[in-house]
């Protein structure tokens, strides 16, 4: 694979490769081979040749330079490349090589790695983190990924169950509120502040109210966490919830907006929300 660029940093080194794909198996094989060459402590020689001589030596890449003489780095019976940087006298001076990450980048694939004492320190840090995680799960470090997947599945199942319960609760509460609210001028106006529900729930409640009854206007607010408002109306009603919300937010010093039938916004303080809902209800003249 052609090398596009090479980076040496304080924390890690990286190589960008000109390739469309790089499998985990290829990366692991390259790491294994690199460490074998390091353990063999092959000599690294430096020599100078002309451009013409270099073309006949099988270099992986001829650098685009104008000068005729090239500096070659020769790892005995393994690699020959042109480079002007600092190099070791033998591969054993590099120390162990630990591949850390491969990722797709715009121009190809990037391989990140560490060497020598940094590799040992990194491996020790990784092992300590894995051991701590394994202790939390009461399992062996090799089983941590499986335990994490299991925990994520349980979280997803719990979240799905919670969402289903909130759906049922919102529908039950919407039906109850609709049954308790008499119509005026052919519409039901529901104004309510919830101290123990967040904006997600009151938005869901507003959607339930306006879908269960064809003539509902709901002005709802949450005082849990950041104060929030939700304005909703059944499809076909003549008002503009988005416009009403923008007006309310400009007066409360908050931000919000939405569509004709559903809008939401957040206010910096909860003190003025009750008055704002009352004034908005009066504007609807229901």
Describe, in plain words, how this protein is organized in 3D.
The mean pLDDT is 92. The longest helix has 37 residues, at 144-180. β9 (216-222) and β10 (228-233) form a beta hairpin. 41% of the residues lie in helices and 26% in strands. It has two domains: 3-142, 2-Layer Sandwich (Threonyl-tRNA Synthetase, Chain A, domain 2); 180-284, Diaminopimelate Epimerase, Chain A, domain 1. With 286 residues, it is an alpha+beta fold. It is built from seven helices and twelve strands. The strands form three sheets. A five-stranded mixed beta sheet has the order 8-9-10-12-11, with helices on both faces. Strands 1-2-7-6 form a four-stranded antiparallel beta sheet. The radius of gyration is 33 Å and the shape is elongated. The termini are far apart.
Give the helices and strands, then pairings.
Layout: E1 3-8, E2 13-17, H1 24-39, E3 44-50, H2 51-55, E4 69-75, E5 79-82, E6 97-105, E7 108-115, H3 116-137, H4 144-180, E8 188-194, H5 199-212, E9 216-222, E10 228-233, H6 241-252, E11 255-258, E12 262-266, H7 273-284
Parallel strand pairs: 8-9
Antiparallel strand pairs: 1-2, 2-7, 3-4, 4-5, 6-7, 9-10, 10-12, 11-12
Helix pairs in contact: 4-5
* Total beta strand runs: 12
Give, in order, the helices and strands.
Answer: EEHEHEEEEHHEHEEHEEH
**CATH homologous superfamily heading of the largest domain:** Threonyl-trna Synthetase, Chain A, domain 2
User: Which residues form runs of ≥5 with pLDDT under 50?
Assistant: none
Structural Rg: 33 Å
Alpha carbon gap, first and last residue? 73 Å
Q: Return the structural class.
A: alpha+beta
Q: Strand order of the main beta sheet, please?
A: 8-9-10-12-11
> Which CATH architecture of the largest domain would you pick?
2-Layer Sandwich
- The assembly state of the depicted protein chains is single chain
Shape category: elongated
CATH fold-level label of the largest domain: Threonyl-tRNA Synthetase, Chain A, domain 2
Q: What amount of the residues lies in strands?
A: 25-35%
Give the biggest sheet: 5 strands, mixed
């Amino acid at each position: 694979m052609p090398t596009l660029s090479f980076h040496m940093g304080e924390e890690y080194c990286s190589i960008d490769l000109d390739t469309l794909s790089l499998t985990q198996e290829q990366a692991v094989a390259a790491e294994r081979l690199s460490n074998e060459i390091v353990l063999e402590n092959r000599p690294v020689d430096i020599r100078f040749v002309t451009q013409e001589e270099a073309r006949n030596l099988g270099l992986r890449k001829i650098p685009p330079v104008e000068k005729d003489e090239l500096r070659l780095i020769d790892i005995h019976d393994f690699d020959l490349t042109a480079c002007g940087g600092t190099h070791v006298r033998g591969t054993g001076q590099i120390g162990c090589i630990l591949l850390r990450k491969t990722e797709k980048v715009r121009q190809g694939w990037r391989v990140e790695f560490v060497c020598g004492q940094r590799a040992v320190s990194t491996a020790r840090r990784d092992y300590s983190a894995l051991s701590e995680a394994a202790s939390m799960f009461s399992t062996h470090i090799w089983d941590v990924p499986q335990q994490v997947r299991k925990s994520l599945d349980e979280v997803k199942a719990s979240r799905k169950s919670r969402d289903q319960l909130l759906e049922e609760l919102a529908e039950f509460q919407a039906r109850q509120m609709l049954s308790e609210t008499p119509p005026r001028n052919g519409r039901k106006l529901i104004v309510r502040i919830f101290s123990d529900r967040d904006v997600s729930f009151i938005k869901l409640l507003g959607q339930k109210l306006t879908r269960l009854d064809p003539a509902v206007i709901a002005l709802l607010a949450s005082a849990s966490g950041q104060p929030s408002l939700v304005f909703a109306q059944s499809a076909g009603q003549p008002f503009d919830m988005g416009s009403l919300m923008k007006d309310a937010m400009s007066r409360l010093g908050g931000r919000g907006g939405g569509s004709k039938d559903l809008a939401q916004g957040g206010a910096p303080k909860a003190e003025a929300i009750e008055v704002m809902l009352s004034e908005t209800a009066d504007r609807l003249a229901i």
